[in-house]
Amino acid sequence: MATARQHDRALAEVRKACLALPEVEERLSHGAPAFFVRGRKSFVMFLDDHHGDGVLGIWCAAPPGAQAELVDTEPDRFFVPPYVGHRGWVGVRLDRAPDWAELAAIVTDAYRHVAPKTLVARLDAD
User: Got the DSSP string for 3-40?
Assistant: First the structure.
């Protein structure tokens, strides 16, 4: 289980990465911080000890095939999350010495997967 310091640092890093993207907002979803494109499509959820699983991490949208590749390659860091795993989402552990630059790239990929083409173009232009 994560310490309060780990939780706060991880949430700050996830929040920073998500809110840096065009037209993203944060709100609670099922009691957890979640990030939405234009207030409608979620692409990242932040969870800490969800239903007692002991995991500090995110669940995020992923392109087809990414979930299987990541989970097969690094099962200690990536996992199939409950509820959204069947949609190809991937779980990313943040309680195992996370690389915050890698986290930002994963969040950006999740955003690209759900955001409208106009927002992805805006992201690419920046």
Answer: -HHHHHHHHHHHHHHHHTSTTEEEEEETTEEEEEETTT
Domain count within the chain: 1
Does residue 123 fall inside a structural domain?
A: no
Kindly state whether residue 83 falls inside one of the protein's structural domains: yes
Residue 37 near residue 55 (C-beta atoms within 8 A)? no
Does residue 55 belong to any structural domain of this protein? yes
* Domain extent at residue 50: 4-118
Q: How far apart are CA 71 and CA 53, in angstroms?
A: 17
Burial level of 98, CB count in 10 A (0-12/13-18/19+)? buried
Other residues' Cβ atoms within 10 Å of the Cβ of residue 59? 27
pTM, two decimal places: 0.95
Q: What is the pLDDT along the chain (126 residues), one digit of tens a residue?
A: 688 999 999 999 999 999 999 999 999 999 999 999 999 999 999 999 999 999 999 999 999 999 999 999 999 999 999 999 999 999 999 998 899 999 999 999 999 999 999 999 999 998
Residue 39 belongs to a domain: yes
